[in-house]
Amino acid sequence: MKKKKETNYISIRESRKIIRENVRQMRYYEKLKRKPKSPAEYTTVMHDENNLIELDNLQTCFFTDNGTVMSVNGVSFDIPKNKIVGVVGESGCGKSVTSLSIMQLVQAPQGQVVGGEIRYNAEELGRDAEGNKIAYDIARTPTKEMYKIRGKDITMIFQEPMTSLNPVFTIGNQLDEVSFVHTPNIDKAAAKAHSIDMLKKVGIAMPEHVYESYPHELSGGMRQRVMISMALAGNPRLIIADEPTTALDVTIQAQILELLKELQKREGCSIMLITHDLGVIAEMADEVVVMYAGKVIEKGTAREIFHNPMHPYTIGLQKSKPLITSASDEPLYSIPGQVPNPINLPNCCYFKNRCNRACERCNGQYPPEIKVSDTHYVSCYLYDSED
Ligand SMILES: Nc1ncnc2c1ncn2[C@@H]1O[C@H](COP(=O)(O)OP(=O)(O)O)[C@@H](O)[C@H]1O
Ligand SMILES: [Mg+2]
Questions:
Q1: Which ligand is nearest to the CA of 72?
Q2: What's the CATH superfamily of 12-153+236-324+332-383?
Q3: Which of 68, 143, 284, 311 has the fewest C-beta atoms lying within 10 Å of its C-beta?
Q4: Is 300 in the pocket of ligand 1 (CB under 6 A)?
């Protein structure tokens, strides 16, 4: 009975067990969220007050019928004030779930943040008795409190602007709504003036005309500009842009990225830019985080990641980017294989099966994070000197 044949199928009995366990877990985490809390329970202190956000060993999972999907499995990185942080990685490596965790928008009850801290350096919280900067821990902040942060201090721009705008209301209607939510007692005229201002800010010509338009009357690029203006309306401190240009064509893509960069400088906010396109990161980011199967495998400044990539995965990503100088008859490099499904992953390097430099040690435990410089970290045995 002990030695069971290895199959990919789940027996009815196992399936029942998984479902029972899922219900138990989901109840537990939902109850935790509803429990009344004192501020001391959901605030903490920043480790470095120059950061806006500090993700510390964040774990977000989905309780599915096939088992627990560890979408984000111990992710740690910082988003400093006034910087653009790029997050790259293949599809399915946990980029969106990381950003949704910051916004407390992970699809509940099956999706839950089960561990770690998301420290948000909110200006209004001040300092504690020892002079440390107090921060929200978004992983524990009650939903009611989160309303003060989400959409105002931290906003999000999604990939597909057509699905994020409501087709039955005018652009003006939807933009005004943002002012009504975030500025109590604002009247209709003031809201309209603010909305028109926002449209001007994102480089829309004839803002009065666009204000009266419906989403389907605008082009893709215009719609994405409207989304950006909506994100800016509450004077955010962090804009999360999840693949903001993937649905746009190349020339419009360049314009939108240029706009984001310019706005970041002018408004003095930070941007977390999620993309699977290293070219975009090279143009935009100050710091880069490379994710793979729910973990950060390498992080550093843009310079370090582009001039001195260390993890074989990062090197592979760089090689699979077309260059203007590469010979046209050479096929473009692609990393063989796929991102593993993050259910029940064994405790060893997740990339080793696809890695061209894997060695004996890679069969051991998951590699530790190795410090290359003050800002550059990599998780790979190739750089672990204890041998
Ligand atoms: N609602 C969900 N239910 C179950 N699994 C999900 C859900 N959303 C995302 N996942 C899983 O989480 C992992 C990470 O997804 P995601 O963060 O969307 O990847 P990406 O890096 O492409 O943005 C994937 O394996 C995906 O299948
Ligand atoms: Mg995504």
A1: 1
A2: P-loop containing nucleotide triphosphate hydrolases (3.40.50.300)
A3: 143
A4: no
